[in-house]
Amino acid sequence: MTWVAIARKDFEDVVRSRMVWGIIAVFLFLMGIVTLGASAQIEDPSATDVIFFFTNVGGQIFVPIIALVVGYMAIVGERQSGSLRILFGLSHNRRDVLFGKLVSRTGVIAVATLVACAFAVALMIGLFGSLPVRTVLGFVTLTLLLGAAFTAIAVGVSAMTDTRMRAMGGAIGSYILFTLVWHPLVAGVHYLLAGELVGLEAPAWYLFALRLNPLEAYRQAMSLLIDGFVPALVGWENIVEDVPASAFQGQEPLMVSNRIAGDVPFYLTEWFAAVILLVWIIVPIAIGYRRFERADLN
Amino acid sequence: MPAIRTRGLTKRYGAGDESVVALEELDLEVAEGEVFGFLGPNGAGKTTTIDLLLDFVRPSEGSATILGYDAQDETDAVRDRVGVLPEGFDLWDRSSGHRHLEFAIESQDGEREPDALLERVGLDRNDGQRPVGDYSKGMLQRLAMAMALAGDPDVLILDEPSGGLDPNGIQTMQEIVREVAETGTTVFFSSHILGQVAAVCDRVGILDDGELVTVDTIEGLRNAAGVGSRLVVEVAGEPGEPVTDLTTIEGVTDVSRAEDGVHVSYTDPRAKATVVHRLVESDAAVLDFDIEEATLEDLFAAFTGSNSSREADHRAERDVRIETGDDGPALEAESEEVDR
């Protein structure tokens, strides 16, 4: 159980990093401006709109990026600096190191996420004097899961690679994969199979393949939670799908529940998105552990 | 049961024709309680051996045990009994030296006090409160030594422990090695500086280019290699007749007169006293004397045959001149830095 010592020590070290707090401060500043500016423009703004903005910018940009930044050096940093030899000399084994680091970095991201959520709650109360408690709890839970998933991806990549540059490449690459590659890729598969781009009404497997992407899982779950369409960073529906322009009027037509014929299967429900996020915590770490356990570490 | 035993331990990197052998068929046995010097130039495979003992890298062939535990299959048991001061490491810049030691003690369920450990390695309380990012290289080395001692290891592995240390620090490090050895701890001391190894070790293994060339005591090595050490006695005036008689002293192999004094080569260190005594009795006044031990280059030249000229040239540039007198090896710190 020596991972506890590593987790505690590592948490102290990361929390002392000015860079992490700098990123959080900049983000909160931007979020404040965006939220205040936007709620001044839309008619009849509500507390849910604040969550909407946070989901958009916070959930899809801030949380993943800060998780990748905080996580990618976790293992490879110790490996390159030689301090991993010191850890081994202090009776820790590879599993302790990996698990301790994962717990610590996830903890840091959880703190950052909670700070951001607390800020959102403060905005809601300050602007509207009310708080949709259930929606906020769902939002906080899903955002924490998203942060944990991206931390696991970053730490997994860190355990798999042997240089800082490769780990950085892996972290940046994963974000590009989820934001820029995933949707066109799934759309391409549909095109190959069906001979045409997918329309507004999409097969269930198509929507499921899309939401295997952790960012997409988070986005879709949040859409269902606040009962409004949360757009992705890049509006791929406009580019790689054959969706009529009218679908972009208002927000509802593009929601998963409106794109599927008949009942929504269980794997497209909001709680299943949480399951997908959990899988994104377990799988990268499992792969990272396997590689790390077998590697020559010099 | 030997503290460390390796059998045919081999490590190759890469595959096929392009593979590089870092360590080849190492058979080594270090007895419990022994201080074993592991000597060789940089790149000889010393760190690879240590990495294999700690399961940091996996052997291509062969096996290693520490206190009877297999280095690969019983890693946890090995690590619980071993303390390591690695070569070339960073610590965690933002936490204090004191916190590092707390962590080391907690990690190993040790019972020592951080402050006592700091004192042991020559760091004071104020140093302990500062973040490690402010430490000099020598202070880092001292702190890492303290961390290695935190769990009262049965086997202490030191990889180039004098790196970054000033003569005073080297002295402290050697005192610690002698102290822990007295309590029965086995010390595995890896270095490329003969003087350091000679100062503390019972036996020495010489590693060159991934192969173990020989294992012996320091004296045994010198004798076996036929490489004597040299006594240089600075004299005023001519010693006269008795000087020529020096050759008759047992253990003395050669006597010559040079500008800086009388040079006496010997293989038996006990000859020194007699030589000095005779010179003091002679017509000349003895102003000073100095001992020039056989250098690592000399030993290598003797043991590695044809390879040696290349090796010796290579090393000569780095000026790893060894002058271990009875006052302790004060001159090596500089040469150590050159390698980094």
Structure overview:
The complex is a heterodimer of chains A (298) and B (340). Chain A is mainly α and 298 residues long. Chain A contains twelve helices and no strands. The longest helix of chain A is centred in the middle third of the chain and has 35 residues. In chain B, a hairpin with a 6-residue loop joins strand 1 and strand 2. A six-stranded mixed beta sheet of chain B has the order 6-7-8-3-9-10, with helices on both faces. In chain B, strands 2-1-4-5 form a four-stranded antiparallel beta sheet, covered by helices on one side. Chain B has a four-stranded antiparallel beta sheet with strand order 12-13-11-14, with helices on one face. The two termini of chain B are 37 Å apart. The chains are: A mainly alpha (298), B alpha/beta (340). The interface between A and B is medium-sized, with 25 and 38 residues.
